[in-house]
Amino acid sequence: MLPSEPLANAGSLERALAGFLAFLRRRITGDYVVDEHGFDPDLTENVIAPLLRPVYQNYFRVETRGLENVPDTGGALIVANHSGALPLDAIMTSLAIMDHHPAHRHLRILAADLVFSVPFLAPLARKTGNTLACQADAERLLAGGHLVGVWPEGFKGIGKPFSERYKLQRFGRGGFVSAALRTGVPIIPCTIVGAEEIYPMIGNFRTLARLLGLPYLPVTPTFPWLGLLGLVPLPSKWFIEFGEPVETESPNPAAAEDPMLVFELTDRIRETIQHSLYGLLMQRRSVFF
């Protein structure tokens, strides 16, 4: 270790401690902002993000590409593939934009209603910028100039068997396209490679899942055989690529109501992501390196 390294480490620790004390002071005095959806950027930036960064940087070793395609300001809709049994792909995408985009923007994730029915998870999801995946909330956020993220495969994507990895499922009914058309914001296809391997789903406890009110209950090579240890995700190597924006501004205000236009644009986005998936898979050397 060089003589300057202990000094640098001490300086980093001192800055971190000062930042934490400033955060506590703001919480005590109430000097922080929470928006109408419950989003608390101060908590997200100073508590949640620092806890997730070691997972992002050292465990999954995420590499990002194409961040220049994400606008610095104004509304935009990021549409990504979904996989991995648990929605860690959404969390890692949000952190990628917050930490590595020049504007350090917050991604407002449209989450399934199941997220908001879990007592501890629901308030945490709200505070970190998640909101219900419904048309009204999506349009309100986009019209307000926010960066919004959607994973339109839903549970069909995140809960698919490992044998179907990297094969996109149906993109719902195109509600995200309608929201983008109504607000005139660009759609940015996002491709995520690596999440499929964190919990390889080789089976599904369907009956037990129904009893628990869950869409699926995965069986993986480690869960439930290793108990709680089986919940630790495998350390796959991740890539997140943001594609070129697809413009949606139209002189026709009724475009969002045209089912054929919505279907065609939805299919176009899906095909773009599927093609990018194949390209990234061809480029990667290994699942874990």
From TrEMBL:
Pfam families for the chain: Acyltransferase (PF01553)
InterPro entries (UniProt xref): P_lipid/glycerol_AcTrfase_prd (IPR016676), Plipid/glycerol_acylTrfase (IPR002123)
Residues annotated as domain Phospholipid/glycerol acyltransferase: 76-195
Record's protein name: Phospholipid/glycerol acyltransferase domain-containing protein
